[in-house]
Amino acid sequence: MDLPFVVATLTRRGLLTPGRPIRIVSQLNALRTWGWSLAGELRQAAARDPGRPAIIDEDGIELTYQDLLERAERTARSMRARHGLQPGDRIGVLCRNHHGLIETIVAATLLGVDAVLVNTGLSAAQLRTVAEEQQLRLLVHDDEFAERVLTLPAELPRLDERAREELVAGALPGELRPPERDGRIIVLTSGTTGTPKGARRPTPHGFGPLVSIIDRIPLHVRDRVMIAAPIFHTWGFAALQVCFALRATIVLHRRFDPAATLAALAAHQCDALFAVPVMVQRLMEVPAPDPRPSLKAVAVSGSALPGGLAPKFMDVYGDVLYNLYGSTEVSWASIAGPDELRQAPTTAGRPPHGTRVQILDDDGRPVPQGRVGRIFVGNEMLFEGYTSGASRESRDGLLDTGDLGRLNADGLLFVDGRADDMIVSGGENVFPSEVEDLLAGLPQVREAAVIGVPDPEYGQRLAAFLALHPGETLDSDAVREYVRRYLARFSVPRDVVYVKYLPRNATGKVLTRELRRYVS
Fold first, then answer.
1. What average pLDDT does this structure show over 285-300?
2. DSSP state of 139
3. How many CA atoms lie within 13 A of 448 on its CB side?
4. pLDDT, tens digit, for every residue of 1-15?
5. Is there a contact between 265 and 185 (Cβ–Cβ < 8 Å)?
6. Per-residue pLDDT tens for 348-357?
7. Cβ neighbours of residue 443 closer than 8 Å, sequence gap 6 or more
């Protein structure tokens, strides 16, 4: 990434403003000594702004950057002394969004230990498999998961919230030095179809990744930011990294509740919100507060924006919505800003600075403009492979996302869905997202999902699942006729199923395996 662009962006976002020389020297020394890991980012923030609030929990706990660093260091020293953790070991972290989760992750990176961020939606059986496959040496978990961890091997030490606080309180004095290897953050894939895979996240090597994001999303130093997206998810963890780099004040709630989120945004005068699309959809289902939160940015990622949601949200909260398309494996691919979402509400936007996106056919050749193909992405934060040793197909430094998409004449990216979600019905290729976006535009529909189910005549047929707004009704034949009016014949769903809500995992993705139970 070119230096003039980096300097200009850092200046624009307030990161190069003057300060007390001794603190600036300490800040730079922290990055030089500890690098760009989460531990290094926290140390630089504590060096520059030690008394600034770092975290505000929903239960009223407020920690400064110096407080947070000291608690993470005490946790690290106790984990090393009591559990013998060494660089290269792995611990599991099964926690919702609160200060204890962040302290534990930072403590692991301080020791060079890999932190496996465990999806809170995993079943007991999936959790047991993850613990075995990742060879966990320790599991830190919230109290609410006490019953779920009972099936884990007895020899695996577990720390609940009380035990974790005892680690902090009972830490012996000592000094932590940079580990011989960086601790990796291992993010688990969403696991909607089985046991999730562990993906090793790389440690940044400079300002490049931060600049790529904040150039397009207007976040500034010392902003107040609410992270509603789960931090165990790639997007929530990326938000944490950005907030540390910006020395932001982070507002956290363990669970997402739309009314409570709006109240917190106003009470804490938040400048920005990190969320997943379904959370934005839920915010639209409760009355907007008066006055409304004065947000500069609502940044979403993790799944496709439902059709029509972007302009509806911006009509209420202003042109502050930013949609980042990416994945655990490629980090980010593109970002759509308010202007682009007004122009094309379902677009994934354009690649940020330093990122390449190509649409290729099955032989690796670029496809013509507007033609659907496989999305390949290149940037400096591509994942380092799965912990199993497997990787993804790559071509000329670009990694396969597993998604299908297209670029229009203006260079905007549109994602048509997962390659393995494409439905072949009677020899015709159908992308569920196109039908979903159309159905989501019906005023009676709260949310919609379309999947392929086996069919003896056509191979597959479309099944639409609709959750309606309270008090609304729809006729199935009218739904089919509506689709027939706007899309091709083979896009009309044979089955129309009405459900109270769509089953989703903890990151908001629809669980298609649950939907298939409704259709024989």
1. 92
2. E
3. 27
4. 688 999 999 999 999
5. no
6. 999 999 999 9
7. none
